[in-house]
Specification:
Blueprint: E1 2-4, E2 7-9, H1 35-49, E3 55-60, E4 65-72, H2 79-90, E5 101-110, E6 116-124, H3 125-136, E7 141-147, H4 148-160, E8 166-171, E9 176-182, E10 185-192, H5 196-207, H6 211-220, H7 232-262, E11 270-274, H8 283-291, E12 295-297, E13 305-306, H9 311-322
Parallel strand pairs: 2-13, 3-7, 8-11, 11-12
Antiparallel strand pairs: 1-2, 4-6, 5-6, 8-9, 9-10
Length: 325
């Protein structure tokens, strides 16, 4: 991705498709099974796509981090001092006393005569170092590290800036991430450990095909009927994912009810969907009916990003690339 006259131009994009799971995203245990194998696979994918950049932005899986919303009466101008205060406040919620936490934060609400509201992201330094070591092995320099669902939001931030009370959903291979907004500001986050891989597994098992074939089928065929559709092929495809799909949307529905019950002053006027995990045509229509809330799949094209590729598949990567340092 490159910038020209204030416009972001997406030149090339490629996904790593393999029957082998190279990553096991998590907060405490090593994420990359083999740095050597993973580095070799990334090199191969880049070469096939003709990508020869020496710097990149890294978008970490959501399972690698913990996100907190904290209140502070005052925010120190020193980020070092503020980081120490945050660490003290969340220390009991970390796995162990000497946990190697990497802490970043953003002030999301600051009003006179009230507490400052911070959104805090905590990562495990050992895990981050593992990802950096993998990229260093192929002589890639990382100039920015983001979290995938926040990076995906960054991709669509300009499109969403006129919205006030909504739920932003980013679904990738491993998980579905829910970020709730009130008055245009994030106020609550929840992760559901179901994603695109679960859809692929369901298709692969019921069709007796490989995961790669299931992913190709997921991308090329229709799975969700529209209101008037009785197409037997679509209905058959829908039956392949019906169980896992209802499980995911039941989790989303329960999360929405939990949020509204615990924050009665808030509301959800619209649900926005993005990410490869839920990259199905008509999935927003299903979501609207299941969640009883206006539901919209975020657009595949944006005015500030020029691309011939559906942005939903690469929204986290794009958001990490165009985000501020």
């Amino acid at each position: 991705i490159r910038e020209k006259a204030g416009q972001h131009l997406l030149d090339k994009a490629v996904g790593l498709e393999s029957e082998e799971d190279f990553l096991s995203p998590g907060f405490t245990l090593p994420n990359i099974r083999s740095i050597e194998k993973t580095a070799k696979e990334i090199t191969s994918v880049f070469a096939k796509a003709g990508i020869n950049k020496s710097t990149l932005s890294l978008s970490l899986p959501a399972a690698c981090v913990r996100l907190f919303f904290l209140n502070f009466e005052k925010v120190s101008p020193s980020r070092e001092d503020m980081t120490e205060l945050i660490h003290w406040q969340i220390n009991k919620q970390l796995p162990k006393k000497d946990f190697p936490a990497v802490i970043t934060y953003q002030v999301i609400d600051s009003q006179p005569d009230s507490d400052n509201r911070l959104m805090v992201v905590v990562a495990n330094k050992n895990i981050v170092d593992q990802y950096l070591a993998c990229l260093s092995a192929i002589k890639m320099k990382v100039n920015r590290v983001e979290v995938n669902f926040l990076a995906a939001y960054n991709c669509f931030e300009e499109y969403l800036q006129s919205e006030d009370n909504y739920l932003f959903i980013y679904s990738d291979y491993d998980a579905t991430n829910l970020l709730f907004f009130s008055d245009g500001k994030p106020v609550f986050y929840h992760r559901i450990d179901l994603g695109g891989r679960d859809y692929q597994l369901s298709i692969a098992q019921k069709k007796n095909i490989s995961l790669t074939q299931a992913n190709s089928m997921k991308q090329s065929e229709l799975f969700f009927p529209n209101q008037n559709s009785t197409d037997p092929l679509i209905m058959e495809n829908f039956s392949l994912i019906k169980e896992i799909n209802e499980k995911l949307f039941k989790n989303i529905y329960d999360s929405m009810r939990y949020f509204l019950n615990n924050q009665p002053q808030c509301q959800i006027n619209k649900v926005f969907l993005c990410g490869s995990g839920l990259a199905f045509s008509n999935v927003d229509l299903f979501g609207k009916n299941f969640l009883s809330t206006d539901c919209q799949r975020l657009p595949s094209e944006l005015t500030n990003i020029t691309s011939k590729i559906d942005l939903n598949y690469y929204s986290a990567a794009i958001g990490a690339a165009i985000g501020e340092v």
